[in-house]
Amino acid sequence: MKELMIATKNKGKVNEFKELFSSRGINVKSLLDYPEIDDIEETGSTFAENAIIKAEAISKLLKLPVIADDSGLSIDYLDGRPGVYSARYAGEQKNDLANTAMVLVELKDVPSEKRTARFHCALAIAIPEEKTYVVEGTCEGQITEAPRGENGFGYDPVFYVVEEGKTMAELPKDVKNKISHRAKALVKMDKLLNELEVSGK
């Protein structure tokens, strides 16, 4: 595979995919290269369902193999919220700062041991006239009381990775690209792509 279509307009996600696939010599394109394509409505109740909806819609439109990502943050104290609404938790404007601020307000005065959370990523690959496949990855952590770090995007500044002793936004890119939910899902996707190539799909 020399070229890969990623069904997202999120620049942060696009950059992560490019970094993660560059070592494989794969050229990554995204919906940023197709501004005429409107956002696909995410009507699923799980990350996997939303990833499938996006991948199949764009694959049908472009008649190409397409990988779609749906990911977000699930906080135990908030019964799994923001979940599939992570990108628009504070409203439809998809404002990272507003979303993060809302989470911190909802967790005000909640002790650290009850601030457990995980990032979840579902990756779906839709191939024209073929079965759609899904792989998933998670990264466990805790929600901090205030943002820390300048790297990353979304909820990274408030997601503390206990094993690393830092928030996602404080981690160097090479470390994040090994431990993140998306990195773990991509390892599984890479294995799946190899299996599909071997089987001639």
UniProtKB/TrEMBL annotation:
<keyword id="KW-0460">Magnesium</keyword>
<feature type="binding site">
    <location>
        <begin position="153"/>
        <end position="156"/>
    </location>
    <ligand>
        <name>substrate</name>
    </ligand>
</feature>
<feature type="binding site">
    <location>
        <begin position="8"/>
        <end position="13"/>
    </location>
    <ligand>
        <name>substrate</name>
    </ligand>
</feature>
<dbReference type="InterPro" id="IPR020922">
    <property type="entry name" value="dITP/XTP_pyrophosphatase"/>
</dbReference>
<dbReference type="Pfam" id="PF01725">
    <property type="entry name" value="Ham1p_like"/>
</dbReference>
<feature type="binding site">
    <location>
        <position position="176"/>
    </location>
    <ligand>
        <name>substrate</name>
    </ligand>
</feature>
<comment type="subunit">
    <text>Homodimer.</text>
</comment>
<dbReference type="GO" id="GO:0046872">
    <property type="term" value="F:metal ion binding"/>
</dbReference>
<feature type="active site" description="Proton acceptor">
    <location>
        <position position="70"/>
    </location>
</feature>
<keyword id="KW-0546">Nucleotide metabolism</keyword>
<dbReference type="GO" id="GO:0009117">
    <property type="term" value="P:nucleotide metabolic process"/>
</dbReference>
<keyword id="KW-0547">Nucleotide-binding</keyword>
<feature type="binding site">
    <location>
        <position position="70"/>
    </location>
    <ligand>
        <name>Mg(2+)</name>
    </ligand>
</feature>
<dbReference type="InterPro" id="IPR002637">
    <property type="entry name" value="RdgB/HAM1"/>
</dbReference>
<keyword id="KW-0479">Metal-binding</keyword>
<dbReference type="GO" id="GO:0035870">
    <property type="term" value="F:dITP diphosphatase activity"/>
</dbReference>
<dbReference type="GO" id="GO:0036222">
    <property type="term" value="F:XTP diphosphatase activity"/>
</dbReference>
<comment type="function">
    <text>Pyrophosphatase that catalyzes the hydrolysis of nucleoside triphosphates to their monophosphate derivatives, with a high preference for the non-canonical purine nucleotides XTP (xanthosine triphosphate), dITP (deoxyinosine triphosphate) and ITP. Seems to function as a house-cleaning enzyme that removes non-canonical purine nucleotides from the nucleotide pool, thus preventing their incorporation into DNA/RNA and avoiding chromosomal lesions.</text>
</comment>
<dbReference type="GO" id="GO:0005829">
    <property type="term" value="C:cytosol"/>
</dbReference>
<feature type="binding site">
    <location>
        <position position="41"/>
    </location>
    <ligand>
        <name>Mg(2+)</name>
    </ligand>
</feature>
<protein>
    <recommendedName>
        <fullName>dITP/XTP pyrophosphatase</fullName>
        <ecNumber>3.6.1.66</ecNumber>
    </recommendedName>
</protein>
<feature type="binding site">
    <location>
        <position position="71"/>
    </location>
    <ligand>
        <name>substrate</name>
    </ligand>
</feature>
<dbReference type="GO" id="GO:0036220">
    <property type="term" value="F:ITP diphosphatase activity"/>
</dbReference>
<dbReference type="GO" id="GO:0017111">
    <property type="term" value="F:ribonucleoside triphosphate phosphatase activity"/>
</dbReference>
<dbReference type="GO" id="GO:0009146">
    <property type="term" value="P:purine nucleoside triphosphate catabolic process"/>
</dbReference>
<comment type="similarity">
    <text>Belongs to the HAM1 NTPase family.</text>
</comment>
<keyword id="KW-0378">Hydrolase</keyword>
<dbReference type="GO" id="GO:0000166">
    <property type="term" value="F:nucleotide binding"/>
</dbReference>
<dbReference type="InterPro" id="IPR029001">
    <property type="entry name" value="ITPase-like_fam"/>
</dbReference>
<feature type="binding site">
    <location>
        <begin position="181"/>
        <end position="182"/>
    </location>
    <ligand>
        <name>substrate</name>
    </ligand>
</feature>
